Amino acid sequence: YQALAIASGADHGSSSNNDARRKGLDIDPSLSVSQSSKKVLPDWSFNLGECALGIQTTQRIRNASQTILVLGERNLFCLTDNGQLIFMSKFEYNPSTFVVYNSEVSQSDASNPSVRYIIGTHSRTLFIAQDGHIRWAAHVDSVPVQIEVATIQDIRGMICTLSETGLLQCCYLGTDPVSTSIPTIMSSTMINVEEAEEQLTKLNKQIKQAMNDPTLVVKRKSNAQVTIQIDDTNQFSTTDETRFQRHDVESTVPSLCVNIRVKSSEAIQNTLLTVHVHTPLCAQPNEIRMGHIGGISAIGTASIVFWMRDDLTPWNLEATFTVSYNTMSDNVCQTIQKSYKLPIKLVARSYQQPISATTADQCKITLGANKPVADLNRVFPELSTGDTNQQQGLTVRFYGSVENVSILASSKSQKYRFQSDSLASIWLFSNLLIERLSASSSIEFEFGDPLPLNDYFSIIDRHYELRVECEQINSTLEISSKQFRAIQKRLLSKFKDKTPSLLDNLDILLENTNQQILALADRYEQSRYELNRCSHDLSCATKLICLLLKISVSLSSDNAQLLNAILSPVTSDDNEQGWEETVDAAVNYALRTVLARSKSAELGSMPSTIGNSTTNMDINKLKKRIQTLCERLEKGGSLVSSSSTRETNLSPDSAYSSTSLSTRKEKPIASNRRKKDDDEDTEIPNGDHEDVFRMLPSTNARKQYNNEDDDN
User: What is the spatial order of strands in the sheet that 268-276 belongs to?
Assistant: First the structure.
């Protein structure tokens, strides 16, 4: 070490003296280092080929030369004291540290000279190795950065690990020792063989019963009972953090603050609360880390603010709260969920406008009920204006929209009417009306008009056209980008040329291509916005069609669930597998299986439209199949297979229901837009004069298939 210090000092001293001479300063000869000192050269060297993470020395045999162990990033090298390689181990993992723990016993054994060491890895594993072979492996809770083998409380071989966060752990290999002493059998003890055989037979019988009984299993320790409590404060405020595209609407919308409390019966850790809402609603914050929640006394609290951010048609007001946590006992990650229905006041407001008669371009939906109509101000108190004269009519409007939705109630015919400029705007209010009236009383609804499939198909056409337009713009944008890059290369080659030449109008072409790319980008952004808006309208219209079809033919819960799965309200704007391709495959499969004309017909091969381009989709076939699906359900078809649900008892109104069904078959599936020459009602504009509530068709009558030849 003295030689190294002298060599380092000589280099440092010479450089310091040279600097002092350049500055004209006097040099103290006593402080100068001898210039005759030589640089230190290594006796030997070994090329590792990687960075060394640690170096340790040991003796393989007592009173023998030292052995050098070097831990690299992917290898371990064992060298002699003169630089000769003894062995090398190549790892398939990333080591973090190592320690040599050769004991006195292993060093005294001259017949088996070896090196024992422990390697810690970044995968939280300890490998106990001997020379180049791994003898044992163990898992630790953290990545060790330092390992030592120590004797603690007269226990030898304790492995102490230190993590980068300062976590110190003391571990040992193996298990706790067990008693191996065999109890002595007294000579006077006599064993009854017959009694022992009976006990053995009895025990075997109990074991067999326990193995066959699923209730007699060893259960884990009960986990923490975590609950989510939602405190609705009903404290509305206003916010202007919106992204409305229309400039003729007010951008200030109400916001609602909801307090969330998370309770646990025992201590939990890594608690994470996530909030999910459907657009155009927004939750802030949508993710909260609560960390450690301990016992009954500790409660995790959070405040979430909800508001309408985009000017899109809302189709779902449900907010889902998900809490994920780890239990302290077994450190297992678990999740719980809870749903909460947001008030409609967040997305809509009452609009002071007199309710006028239905125009020719408006959509109307009329629902009949078997009970007197309710006061609309009590059904929708958050949208009520407080005017007692308007109890049979209500006009509302979504934030960011200029379309009005009118809700009318006729006490004479016991009907509710929804009318709006678009079919999608009716869904949310009609669903809320049915839910709230059904929750307060056992009311039944009826829809006797034709399904508004023409309006629904118009939304499908618009959605498909926007998808095709986005795909075409994207293709044109890709071609323009390639052209722009090619012009750039031509210009660069001309600029690099030593001989000046004309640009051949490449600069003008480059500028025009750049302007074209910018225009296409703006057009694509606008088309994507229109596609997103149309996707929300399609979701609302799809939910409304499923609801009307369920009410019209009194679908069971299983059939309604399958119908919502086939006509899914979840839209996808992907070019390869969008909403049209998914629904077309589901509807086609249903028409070929459960709704097939002949139950014995084979499924055959189904044409696949998934994975093709959007332009290859035949949208007319999709609309025809959706219409056929609705017709077969109206004629008594069922989406549930007959083998799973069979009814043997006939309802007493089956004869009347059959007559009612035959009457419904004659009604064409057309648009529900009001014609100008239709009759008008005194209480409901352009209303229906039917005062008698039509009996709903029974399940048995709906199962009767019509044998007329329908196309897929």
Answer: 287-293, 268-276, 318-327, 333-341
Give per-residue pLDDT as tens, 196-210: 889 999 998 888 877
Cβ atoms within 10 A of the Cβ of 648, count?
A: 5
pLDDT tens readout for residues 389-435: 555 788 888 888 888 888 888 888 888 899 998 888 999 999 999 98
- Phi first, then psi, for residue 14 (nearest 5°) are -65, -40
Handedness of CA 341, 346, 351, 352 (dihedral sign): positive
Tell me how far apart the alpha carbons of residues 499 and 484 are, in angstroms, rounded to a whole number.
Answer: 24
- pLDDT of 465 higher than 50: yes
Q: Do the beta carbons of residue 545 and residue 456 sit within 8 Å?
A: yes
**Token code pair at residue 378:** 């009590």
Identify the CA nearest to 594 among candidates 477, 452, 705. Answer: 705
327 within 8 A of 268, measured Cβ to Cβ: yes
Nearest partner of 564 among 590, 537, 543, 538, judged by Cα: 543
Q: How many other CB atoms are found less than 10 A from the CB of residue 25? A: 9
Are 681 and 411 a contacting pair, CB within 8 Å?
no
Q: Give the tens place of pLDDT for each residue, 94-133.
A: 999 999 987 665 555 666 778 899 999 999 899 999 888 8
User: What mean pLDDT is predicted for residues 448-466?
Assistant: 90
Which residues on neighbouring strands pair with residue 134, listed in sequence order? 129
Report d(CA 149, CA 437) in Å as an integer: 74
Q: Which residue has the higher pLDDT, 482 or 644?
A: 482
CB 76 within 8 A of CB 70: yes
Residue 38 DSSP label: P
Cβ–Cβ under 8 Å, residues 585 and 577: no
**Omega before 214 within 30 of 0, i.e. cis:** no
The residue ranges of DSSP E strands in 250-314, in sequence order, are 253-264, 268-276, 281-284, 287-293, 300-308
Question: Is it the case that residue 332 has pLDDT exceeding 90?
Answer: no
The domains located in the chain, with CATH, are 2-31 (no CATH), 52-171 (2.40.128.630), 226-346 (2.60.40.10), 348-446 (3.30.310.200), 453-642+695-702 (no CATH)
Closest CA to 309 of 253, 256, 350: 253
Token pair of 97 as six digits: 């540290």
CB 384 within 8 A of CB 661: no
Q: Against a cut of 0.90, is the pTM above it?
A: no
Run of H or E including 170: strand 168-171
CA-wise closest residue to 226 among 345, 336, 140, 85: 336
Phi and psi torsions of 646, nearest 5° = -130, 130
Average the pLDDT over 326-346 and give the result.
85
Between CA 120 and CA 618 the distance in angstroms is 61
Number of other CB atoms surrounding residue 314 within 10 Å:
26
Asked if residue 330 lies in contact with residue 224, where contact means CB atoms within 8 angstroms, the answer is no
pLDDT at 301 over 60: yes
